[in-house]
Amino acid sequence: AQSVTQLGSHVSVSEGALVLLRCNYSSSVPPYLFWYVQYPNQGLQLLLKYTTGATLVKGINGFEAEFKKSETSFHLTKPSAHMSDAAEYFCAVSVPGGGGNKLTFGTGTQLKVEL
Amino acid sequence: DGGITQSPKYLFRKEGQNVTLSCEQNLNHDAMYWYRQDPGQGLRLIYYSQIVNDFQKGDIAEGYSVSREKKESFPLTVTSAQKNPTAFYLCASQPGQNNGYTFGSGTRLTVV
Question: What does DSSP assign to residue A18?
Fold first, then answer.
């Protein structure tokens, strides 16, 4: 079965600083990987996804993530944080052709952006 | 515009009462899911349905029930058997294999 680990339940950065949110996965086959963002009292919104092809994936709001098979990682980055980036971020994994298409989510990372 | 609608946004229930949360989508997605979200615990899967008239239990199905009589609708009933129902409930739909989910805006259920 696949699983996801998000290192750091809370991350704090200064406005304009680099954002790095960590995600490691476990899967017996090459997975599909996703990052979602959630603002307070709202649903989750897809930021970006990796299925096949280019390992560096660009998403909305200036975020990007790189699939590194050797490190089983899919870390989320943004070069310059903005106050509006403050939210909770979830990494998720699914297994092609198996698991009933279900996504398995990490426990989330709360991003705080300070002036 | 296509989307997934959850209602109501806030719901209060007295202990011992059943309550039903609505989830409707007009995206023509086959699969639908219900998750429960509690602080610090991420999303936990309650039930899911891949096709109409079929559904499966997730990781925390006890005290919950669902139906899938129409492709567009996947209501969740929180029964009196659910001992700790206060939580934020999220519904999601998925167009096909290995695609991401589209989420509704959630229902916050509070037991009073």
Answer: P
Residue type, position A38, single letter: Q
Residue ranges of A 15-34 with Cβ closer than 8 A to chain B: 32, 34
Pairing assessment for the beta strands A87-94 and B19-25 based on DSSP bridges: unpaired
* Closest of A111, A105, A98 to residue A35, by C-alpha: A105
- C-alpha span between A20 and A71 (Å, rounded): 16
Q: For residue range A1-26, what is the model confidence (pLDDT) as tens digits?
A: 789 999 999 999 999 999 999 999 99
Residues in B closer than 8 angstroms to A65, CB to CB, are none
Over residues B78-101, mean pLDDT: 90
Contact B87/B44 with Cβ under 8 angstroms?
no
pLDDT value for B61: 97
